Amino acid sequence: MKVLVIEDEVKSASYLRKGLSEQGFIVDVAADGEEGLHLARHCRYDLLILDIMLPKQDGWAVLSDLRGARNQTPVLVLTARDAVQDRVKGLDLGADDYLVKPFAFSELLARIRTVLRRGPARQAETLAVADLEIDVVRQRAGRSGKRLDLTPKEFRLLSLLARCAGEVLSRTLIAEQVWDMNFDSDTNVVDVHVRRLRAKVDDPFPRKLIHTVRGVGYVLEDRDK
Ligand code: CA
Question: What is the pLDDT of residue 120?
């Protein structure tokens, strides 16, 4: 299960990331509405956890943009205010459920289970691009049936790229998602890890999947189609 948390409060976002990861979810975090909407539209998630008060673009705008684009990913809205009109507005805009802050983690999990049960058919737990296959649950990846021996960070990096296949991801975004922190000053770390990942994923195979987009970042896609 892949979850995108759109939440600007650092403490709350890292609490959600940690707690949900411990429950076996794969968690991406966006710290503002703009980045959140971008990820939600271009990458695949089973669930969005969306805060309302967000910089750049608030949660309402994110939600109405998504639904306007016919994106039906289940959305659980987090609201700090227990106002009836907020609840109504959220459901009107196409949220699947909402939760008032502060909430107990167990309550969040219960809501997530309900939303996912109600939602559209679950996405497969396997990501595939060309002959690359990623088993998200077992944390395994392979190409042409050959198992790739990846470290946990390499696996996280590869599954992020595959989840957003065809979408160019910036070094900063990759650093935030894979290392859970801001590497603005040293995105070199990303380059080093991409190089190591390529050595395992691409070098032994004729078809290259990880591509550098100069001055921007990296994209995983099958260009030999
Ligand atoms: Ca907020």
Answer: 58
Q: What is the mean pLDDT of each run of 10 residues along the chain (225 residues)?
A: 94 93 91 95 93 94 93 89 73 86 91 81 74 88 94 93 92 84 68 95 96 94 85
Among residues 156, 185, 16, the alpha carbon closest in space to that of 3 is found at 16
What is the extent of the structural domain holding 170? 126-220
143: closest CA among 83, 220, 86? Answer: 220
Q: What is the CA(211)–ligand 1 centre distance, in A?
A: 35
Give 13 Cα–ligand 1 centroid separation in angstroms.
Answer: 10
Residues 103 and 150 in one domain: no
Residue 49 in any domain: the answer is yes
This prediction's pTM? 0.74
Do 174 and 198 belong to one domain?
A: yes
CATH for 35: 3.40.50.2300
Between the CA of 52 and the centroid of ligand 1 the distance, in Å, is: 6
Q: What is the helix (H) or strand (E) element at residue 90, kind and residue range? A: helix 84-92
Quote the pLDDT of residue 13. Answer: 93
What's the Rg (C-alpha) of the chain?
18
How far apart are the CA of 51 and the centre of ligand 1, in A?
6
CA of 25 relative to ligand 1 center, distance in Å: 22
Residue 183 alpha carbon to ligand 1 centre in Å: 22
> If you measure from the C-alpha of residue 6 to the centroid of ligand 1, how many angstroms do you get, rounded to a whole number?
9
